[in-house]
Design goal:
By secondary structure, the protein is α+β, with helices and mostly antiparallel strands. The protein is built from seven helices and 15 strands.
Length: 307
Protein backbone atom coordinates (compact mmCIF):
# COMPACT_ATOMS: atom_id res chain seq x y z
CA UNK A 1 0.00 0.00 0.00
CA UNK A 2 2.80 2.40 0.88
CA UNK A 3 4.59 1.68 -2.40
CA UNK A 4 1.38 2.29 -4.34
CA UNK A 5 0.82 5.60 -2.55
CA UNK A 6 4.37 6.73 -3.29
CA UNK A 7 3.94 5.77 -6.93
CA UNK A 8 0.69 7.74 -7.29
CA UNK A 9 2.14 10.82 -5.60
CA UNK A 10 5.19 10.63 -7.83
CA UNK A 11 3.08 10.58 -10.99
CA UNK A 12 0.79 13.38 -9.88
CA UNK A 13 3.67 15.52 -8.71
CA UNK A 14 5.65 15.34 -11.94
CA UNK A 15 5.87 18.63 -13.80
CA UNK A 16 5.36 17.92 -17.52
CA UNK A 17 8.02 19.00 -20.02
CA UNK A 18 6.24 19.62 -23.34
CA UNK A 19 8.34 20.00 -26.47
CA UNK A 20 7.04 22.49 -29.04
CA UNK A 21 8.18 23.39 -32.53
CA UNK A 22 7.61 26.20 -35.01
CA UNK A 23 8.31 25.35 -38.64
CA UNK A 24 7.80 27.50 -41.73
CA UNK A 25 7.72 25.05 -44.64
CA UNK A 26 8.43 27.76 -47.29
CA UNK A 27 6.23 27.81 -50.34
CA UNK A 28 9.30 27.48 -52.56
CA UNK A 29 9.59 30.93 -54.12
CA UNK A 30 9.10 34.63 -53.47
CA UNK A 31 5.65 36.06 -54.14
CA UNK A 32 7.01 39.59 -54.51
CA UNK A 33 8.18 38.64 -58.01
CA UNK A 34 4.51 38.69 -59.02
CA UNK A 35 3.96 42.19 -57.66
CA UNK A 36 7.18 43.38 -59.29
CA UNK A 37 6.02 42.04 -62.65
CA UNK A 38 2.71 43.89 -62.39
CA UNK A 39 4.35 47.12 -61.19
CA UNK A 40 6.82 47.13 -64.09
CA UNK A 41 4.20 46.38 -66.72
CA UNK A 42 5.47 42.86 -67.22
CA UNK A 43 3.55 39.64 -67.56
CA UNK A 44 1.91 38.33 -64.41
CA UNK A 45 1.34 34.99 -66.09
CA UNK A 46 5.03 34.63 -66.91
CA UNK A 47 5.98 35.53 -63.35
CA UNK A 48 3.57 32.92 -61.98
CA UNK A 49 4.98 30.28 -64.33
CA UNK A 50 8.49 31.13 -63.14
CA UNK A 51 7.41 30.91 -59.49
CA UNK A 52 5.74 27.53 -60.02
CA UNK A 53 8.80 26.23 -61.85
CA UNK A 54 11.12 27.27 -59.00
CA UNK A 55 8.81 26.00 -56.25
CA UNK A 56 8.18 22.65 -57.93
CA UNK A 57 11.60 22.27 -59.52
CA UNK A 58 14.80 23.06 -57.70
CA UNK A 59 12.92 23.79 -54.43
CA UNK A 60 10.54 20.84 -54.74
CA UNK A 61 8.81 19.89 -51.51
CA UNK A 62 8.87 16.27 -52.61
CA UNK A 63 12.51 16.19 -51.50
CA UNK A 64 12.27 18.82 -48.76
CA UNK A 65 9.41 17.06 -46.96
CA UNK A 66 11.76 14.15 -46.21
CA UNK A 67 14.22 16.53 -44.54
CA UNK A 68 11.53 18.23 -42.46
CA UNK A 69 10.03 14.88 -41.47
CA UNK A 70 13.45 13.78 -40.27
CA UNK A 71 13.71 16.93 -38.11
CA UNK A 72 10.34 16.17 -36.53
CA UNK A 73 10.96 12.47 -36.00
CA UNK A 74 14.34 13.14 -34.39
CA UNK A 75 13.26 15.96 -32.04
CA UNK A 76 9.78 14.52 -31.25
CA UNK A 77 7.91 17.76 -30.49
CA UNK A 78 4.56 17.22 -28.81
CA UNK A 79 2.97 20.16 -30.61
CA UNK A 80 3.98 21.78 -33.89
CA UNK A 81 2.95 25.07 -35.43
CA UNK A 82 3.39 24.95 -39.20
CA UNK A 83 3.29 27.93 -41.54
CA UNK A 84 3.10 27.99 -45.36
CA UNK A 85 1.45 24.61 -45.79
CA UNK A 86 1.00 24.92 -49.53
CA UNK A 87 -0.83 23.37 -52.44
CA UNK A 88 -0.04 23.95 -56.12
CA UNK A 89 -2.32 22.91 -58.93
CA UNK A 90 -0.99 23.69 -62.39
CA UNK A 91 0.25 22.30 -65.66
CA UNK A 92 3.46 21.48 -63.84
CA UNK A 93 1.56 19.03 -61.67
CA UNK A 94 -0.26 19.01 -58.35
CA UNK A 95 1.66 19.36 -55.09
CA UNK A 96 0.16 19.14 -51.61
CA UNK A 97 2.60 19.81 -48.76
CA UNK A 98 0.36 18.21 -46.12
CA UNK A 99 -0.15 15.08 -48.19
CA UNK A 100 3.61 14.77 -48.70
CA UNK A 101 4.61 15.43 -45.08
CA UNK A 102 2.08 13.65 -42.87
CA UNK A 103 2.72 10.08 -44.10
CA UNK A 104 6.40 10.60 -43.22
CA UNK A 105 5.55 11.50 -39.60
CA UNK A 106 3.12 8.71 -38.63
CA UNK A 107 3.17 9.60 -34.92
CA UNK A 108 1.51 12.96 -35.68
CA UNK A 109 -1.98 14.09 -36.58
CA UNK A 110 -3.58 17.32 -37.67
CA UNK A 111 -5.39 19.40 -35.05
CA UNK A 112 -6.53 22.41 -37.08
CA UNK A 113 -5.72 24.10 -40.40
CA UNK A 114 -6.61 27.65 -41.45
CA UNK A 115 -6.36 28.86 -45.03
CA UNK A 116 -4.31 32.03 -45.47
CA UNK A 117 -4.02 32.64 -49.20
CA UNK A 118 -5.60 31.50 -52.46
CA UNK A 119 -4.35 32.80 -55.81
CA UNK A 120 -5.97 31.76 -59.05
CA UNK A 121 -4.29 32.68 -62.34
CA UNK A 122 -6.57 31.62 -65.21
CA UNK A 123 -4.89 29.22 -67.57
CA UNK A 124 -1.87 28.85 -65.29
CA UNK A 125 -2.87 27.35 -61.96
CA UNK A 126 -3.98 27.71 -58.35
CA UNK A 127 -1.85 28.27 -55.27
CA UNK A 128 -3.01 28.06 -51.64
CA UNK A 129 -1.17 28.51 -48.36
CA UNK A 130 -2.36 27.63 -44.86
CA UNK A 131 -1.20 27.41 -41.25
CA UNK A 132 -1.60 24.26 -39.19
CA UNK A 133 -1.20 22.74 -35.74
CA UNK A 134 -0.02 19.15 -35.42
CA UNK A 135 0.02 17.04 -32.27
CA UNK A 136 2.08 14.00 -31.37
CA UNK A 137 0.09 10.92 -30.54
CA UNK A 138 0.69 10.22 -26.86
CA UNK A 139 -1.71 8.67 -24.39
CA UNK A 140 -1.13 11.22 -21.62
CA UNK A 141 -1.93 14.28 -23.77
CA UNK A 142 -5.38 15.40 -24.84
CA UNK A 143 -6.00 18.30 -27.22
CA UNK A 144 -9.41 19.98 -27.35
CA UNK A 145 -11.25 23.13 -28.36
CA UNK A 146 -9.23 23.92 -31.47
CA UNK A 147 -10.06 27.40 -32.74
CA UNK A 148 -8.79 29.86 -35.33
CA UNK A 149 -9.24 33.47 -36.27
CA UNK A 150 -8.34 35.84 -39.08
CA UNK A 151 -6.81 39.17 -38.16
CA UNK A 152 -8.93 42.24 -38.81
CA UNK A 153 -6.01 44.20 -40.24
CA UNK A 154 -4.76 42.56 -43.43
CA UNK A 155 -2.34 43.32 -46.22
CA UNK A 156 -3.58 43.41 -49.80
CA UNK A 157 -1.58 41.58 -52.47
CA UNK A 158 -2.53 41.93 -56.13
CA UNK A 159 -5.97 43.17 -55.10
CA UNK A 160 -6.64 40.32 -52.67
CA UNK A 161 -6.47 40.19 -48.87
CA UNK A 162 -3.79 38.01 -47.33
CA UNK A 163 -5.83 36.38 -44.58
CA UNK A 164 -3.13 36.13 -41.90
CA UNK A 165 -4.49 34.08 -39.05
CA UNK A 166 -3.91 32.23 -35.81
CA UNK A 167 -4.86 28.88 -34.31
CA UNK A 168 -5.18 27.75 -30.70
CA UNK A 169 -6.01 24.57 -28.85
CA UNK A 170 -6.30 23.55 -25.22
CA UNK A 171 -3.78 20.97 -24.12
CA UNK A 172 -3.95 18.70 -21.08
CA UNK A 173 -0.58 17.05 -20.51
CA UNK A 174 -0.14 14.89 -17.45
CA UNK A 175 -1.63 16.93 -14.62
CA UNK A 176 -1.26 20.33 -16.30
CA UNK A 177 -3.20 22.41 -18.81
CA UNK A 178 -2.12 25.15 -21.19
CA UNK A 179 -3.09 26.85 -24.45
CA UNK A 180 -0.97 26.20 -27.53
CA UNK A 181 -0.95 28.98 -30.13
CA UNK A 182 0.37 29.23 -33.71
CA UNK A 183 0.47 32.19 -36.10
CA UNK A 184 2.03 33.76 -39.18
CA UNK A 185 2.08 37.56 -39.03
CA UNK A 186 2.37 39.87 -42.04
CA UNK A 187 5.89 40.19 -43.45
CA UNK A 188 5.66 43.03 -45.96
CA UNK A 189 4.35 45.82 -43.73
CA UNK A 190 5.54 46.52 -40.17
CA UNK A 191 2.47 48.68 -39.48
CA UNK A 192 0.14 45.82 -40.34
CA UNK A 193 2.06 43.21 -38.33
CA UNK A 194 1.98 45.61 -35.37
CA UNK A 195 -1.81 45.95 -35.71
CA UNK A 196 -2.13 42.15 -35.81
CA UNK A 197 -0.03 41.84 -32.66
CA UNK A 198 -2.23 44.47 -30.99
CA UNK A 199 -5.27 42.30 -31.71
CA UNK A 200 -3.65 39.41 -29.85
CA UNK A 201 -3.08 41.39 -26.64
CA UNK A 202 -6.31 43.43 -26.73
CA UNK A 203 -9.28 42.51 -24.50
CA UNK A 204 -10.67 39.27 -25.86
CA UNK A 205 -7.45 38.56 -27.75
CA UNK A 206 -5.72 35.18 -27.72
CA UNK A 207 -2.97 36.41 -25.38
CA UNK A 208 -5.30 38.24 -23.01
CA UNK A 209 -5.96 35.25 -20.78
CA UNK A 210 -5.22 33.92 -17.30
CA UNK A 211 -4.38 30.49 -18.74
CA UNK A 212 -0.83 29.39 -19.37
CA UNK A 213 0.06 30.04 -23.02
CA UNK A 214 2.82 28.63 -25.19
CA UNK A 215 2.88 30.51 -28.49
CA UNK A 216 4.90 29.64 -31.58
CA UNK A 217 5.02 31.03 -35.06
CA UNK A 218 6.70 32.92 -37.83
CA UNK A 219 6.01 36.33 -36.33
CA UNK A 220 7.85 38.12 -39.15
CA UNK A 221 9.10 40.57 -36.55
CA UNK A 222 12.55 40.51 -35.02
CA UNK A 223 13.52 42.08 -31.66
CA UNK A 224 14.11 45.49 -33.31
CA UNK A 225 10.64 45.67 -34.88
CA UNK A 226 7.31 46.97 -33.62
CA UNK A 227 5.24 43.79 -33.29
CA UNK A 228 7.94 42.03 -31.29
CA UNK A 229 8.40 45.05 -29.03
CA UNK A 230 4.66 45.26 -28.32
CA UNK A 231 4.34 41.54 -27.58
CA UNK A 232 7.24 41.59 -25.12
CA UNK A 233 6.59 44.99 -23.55
CA UNK A 234 5.74 44.46 -19.87
CA UNK A 235 2.89 46.98 -20.05
CA UNK A 236 1.41 45.52 -23.24
CA UNK A 237 1.85 41.89 -24.33
CA UNK A 238 4.17 40.99 -21.45
CA UNK A 239 5.24 37.81 -23.25
CA UNK A 240 8.54 36.07 -22.60
CA UNK A 241 10.76 35.28 -25.58
CA UNK A 242 11.87 32.07 -23.97
CA UNK A 243 14.23 30.87 -26.72
CA UNK A 244 15.87 34.22 -27.38
CA UNK A 245 19.36 32.75 -27.45
CA UNK A 246 18.62 30.00 -29.96
CA UNK A 247 20.20 31.87 -32.90
CA UNK A 248 19.09 33.39 -36.18
CA UNK A 249 16.27 31.66 -38.09
CA UNK A 250 15.72 33.54 -41.35
CA UNK A 251 16.32 33.50 -44.22
CA UNK A 252 18.27 31.39 -46.67
CA UNK A 253 18.30 32.35 -50.38
CA UNK A 254 15.17 31.91 -52.49
CA UNK A 255 16.80 29.01 -54.34
CA UNK A 256 17.58 26.56 -51.58
CA UNK A 257 20.51 24.92 -53.33
CA UNK A 258 22.39 28.23 -52.97
CA UNK A 259 24.52 28.62 -49.85
CA UNK A 260 23.48 31.58 -47.73
CA UNK A 261 23.59 33.21 -44.30
CA UNK A 262 20.72 33.82 -41.90
CA UNK A 263 20.15 37.48 -41.00
CA UNK A 264 17.39 37.67 -38.37
CA UNK A 265 15.31 35.77 -35.81
CA UNK A 266 11.57 35.83 -36.50
CA UNK A 267 10.58 32.23 -35.73
CA UNK A 268 9.73 32.58 -32.08
CA UNK A 269 8.45 30.77 -29.00
CA UNK A 270 6.69 32.92 -26.41
CA UNK A 271 5.27 32.09 -23.00
CA UNK A 272 3.07 34.26 -20.80
CA UNK A 273 4.39 33.24 -17.39
CA UNK A 274 7.83 33.20 -15.78
CA UNK A 275 6.74 29.99 -14.07
CA UNK A 276 7.21 28.19 -17.40
CA UNK A 277 10.90 27.32 -17.50
CA UNK A 278 13.21 26.68 -20.44
CA UNK A 279 14.82 23.25 -20.47
CA UNK A 280 16.43 23.38 -23.92
CA UNK A 281 16.18 25.09 -27.29
CA UNK A 282 17.59 24.18 -30.67
CA UNK A 283 17.29 25.03 -34.33
CA UNK A 284 16.68 22.50 -37.09
CA UNK A 285 17.47 22.73 -40.78
CA UNK A 286 20.50 24.97 -40.26
CA UNK A 287 22.63 23.17 -42.85
CA UNK A 288 22.04 21.91 -46.36
CA UNK A 289 21.47 18.18 -46.72
CA UNK A 290 22.32 16.65 -50.09
CA UNK A 291 22.87 20.16 -51.40
CA UNK A 292 19.57 21.77 -50.33
CA UNK A 293 18.11 23.52 -47.29
CA UNK A 294 14.84 22.10 -45.95
CA UNK A 295 13.30 25.60 -45.98
CA UNK A 296 14.34 29.23 -46.16
CA UNK A 297 13.71 29.36 -42.39
CA UNK A 298 15.14 27.11 -39.72
CA UNK A 299 12.85 25.29 -37.36
CA UNK A 300 12.91 26.04 -33.64
CA UNK A 301 12.32 23.25 -31.10
CA UNK A 302 11.93 24.14 -27.43
CA UNK A 303 11.51 21.92 -24.39
CA UNK A 304 9.76 23.59 -21.45
CA UNK A 305 8.91 22.71 -17.87
CA UNK A 306 5.42 23.62 -16.71
CA UNK A 307 4.86 24.90 -13.16
Amino acid sequence: MLLLLISVVSVLGTNPTPIVMTRNLYLGGHLQHLAEAVASGGSLAAAVVSLFQTANGVNSFVARSTLIAKEINLTTPDLIGLQEVVTFSSGFGNVDFKALLLPKIPNYEEVITTLETTFVVPGIGIFTSANMILRRKRSDMTVTDAQSGIYHTLAVFLGKNISRNWQTCNVHLGNKEFVFFNTHLENEDDVISLAQAQELVAPGGAFNTHNLVIAVGDFNSNPTQSAYKLLTNKKQGNLIDIAKNVGLTCCFPEVLTTQGALIERVDLVFTNSPSIKLVSAQRTGVNQVNGIYASDHTGVVVKLRLP
